[in-house]
Amino acid sequence: MGRRAPDNPRYQRGVEIGKTRRSAASAKPKRGKSAPSKKPVKGSARSRFLAPVPTSPEYRRLRKLWASVLGAAVVLSLVAWWQQGTWFGTTVLVLAYACIFTAFYLDFMRLRPMRKAAIEADKAEKAGKAEKAGKAEKTSGTKKRGGTDTD
Predict the structure, then answer these.
(1) What is the mean pLDDT of residues 12-17?
(2) Phi, psi of 12, rounded to the nearest 5 degrees
(3) pLDDT number for residue 83
């Protein structure tokens, strides 16, 4: 590649001699207007997003407990902030931290393993459906031209 000459009008400011060279991308052929249409999405995105979440009564109970413990931690933190510098405020702050640690315990030790198991079960179910569809597609295939139907 050559060195740019400073006296070339292309690189001088304020000189209007025309346009610069067009990029190679503009010379590429354009895609036709008959683009393949996308398949319609089955179900909404929300239902697919929430599908692997467990719906067992134990999971729901623990989730409500987790939310209430976090809510209590927020309320106790506000009370501790309001009563800061007193023994009551310090005690309430310790209770707020206890609520936060309890919420972490519930989430990491009780709720996440349930969610992971549900996600794995959902993946296994989808893989099983895909495998069945693949087998059905192979058995309904047509013969090759001029050959035998054994592969």
Answers:
(1) 72
(2) -95, 145
(3) 92
Type of residue at 59: Y
Q: Which two tokens stand for residue 63?
A: 């989730």
Percent of the chain with pLDDT over 90: 37
Closest CA to 82 of 92, 70, 95: 92
The whole model's pTM is what? 0.53
What does the CA dihedral 65, 69, 75, 76 come to, rounded to 10 degrees? 150
| The residue to which tokens 């059905």 are assigned | 136
Inter-residue contact 51 to 119 (CB < 8 Å): no
HEC letters along the chain: CCCCCCCCHHHCCCCCCCCCCCCHHHHCCCCCCCCCCCCCCCCCHHHHHHCCCCCCHHHHHHHHHHHHHHHHHHHHHHHHHHCCCCHHHHHHHHHHHHHHHHHHHHHHHHHHHHHHHHHHHHHHHHHHHHHHHHHHHHHCCCCCCCCCCCC
- How far, in Å, CA of 53 to CA of 59, rounded? 9
